[in-house]
């Protein structure tokens, strides 16, 4: 009973600044909170005729999905109970046939890589602008993406393009321009908007992916709405020409035949509340809190990443000579739980109802942290030595299933990777199966090993020739 004991203990940190965005229940959609107060298990129901499921034409779920599509201005809507991960994979398989090439950013979530494997698709990865101060990939500019499209199409036709916006840290580029550029080339766009269900609902936030014209949009409802983990939604843009039958076929392949009624209700309740007048007011208060917190930290000399989402606060700890993983461990000991530690940056998710003591406590705690761990001088990061666009030299599925051996990183140059290298979180692959590890990449990976000592092994699996 180790897991149950852990959950029953219900540890209450001083500042829980991590996902889900409901903040340990404080900002759950009211209707969902009411459901959870019922007799435990009373809502754990099968696909009864009156309930139905995401792929059924009749029942409460079908009616709910139609209502949410109308509320959000989408052509169609499907709930998912396998998180944004499962819906991203379904969207990808709906847009491309086996053997076709799909364009993906280097900061893709690993679920999309799994989707390529399942659909026998060839991933064409494109490089992104890089910030040496924080060590983060940044959104592509229209000029950068234009060069990407031209380079990728010069190597052969593409079936679809995938974009990630916002990033985990809350960065958003000129999404409407990027979507339009891809669509002018005849490419439908799948948008990973896992962290952006709230976009477009307040003047301080960028527009949503639907308003930017994306064909398919996937949102995680635990990351930026008041939903439970694993609840997500797949939205088809109003102007999209993608055949809904292809989407539903892919969903049939990948989604469970026994979806949780609780998670389906979570999708409905969180979206309805977020888009209601009460939900927008709650969001507005949270955004104001985020803006005030940013002002207080900047006034203390804390260097923060420029983002477009006030609910994501990314401290560039490298500017103080501090490794984000070490800072995260220091904070955890003091009851401050961040969401995403990285070597040069530590990201806090404020959620839809930030903790009351946030404005007072976090600046003071970070000041103490900087005094105790800082002083080593600012650090900078080397840009990954990656081509503008690249495909695996060996087909993804073949490389991933091939016989392999583990070799030290300093002996990996010239070999083909046999598995992805994904420091977690957030599951972004630094290396994918079938890629050739050239000399500069091998040296760069050794540097990443030094920065991520607990996340990257000192060996890498390579294909046995």
Question: What would you report as the Rg, rounded to the nearest angstrom?
Answer: 22 Å
Average pLDDT figure: 94
- Helix and strand content put the structural class at alpha/beta
Unreliable segments of 5+ consecutive residues: none
Q: Largest sheet, described in full?
A: 8 strands, mixed
Number of strands: 17
Strand order of the largest sheet: 2-10-9-8-7-3-4-15
Q: Given the structure, what is the number of helices?
A: 14
Cα(first) to Cα(last) distance is 46 Å
Helix content: 25-40%
Q: What percentage of the residues does DSSP assign to strands (E)?
A: 5-15%
Estimate the global geometry from the Cα principal axes. globular
Quaternary assembly: single chain
Describe this structure in words.
The chain is α/β, with parallel strands linked by helices. The chain contains 14 helices and 17 strands. The strands form five sheets. Strands 2-10-9-8-7-3-4-15 form an eight-stranded mixed beta sheet, with helices on both faces. Strands 11-14-13 form a three-stranded antiparallel beta sheet. Strands 1-12 form a two-stranded parallel ribbon. The model has no long low-confidence stretch (mean pLDDT 94).
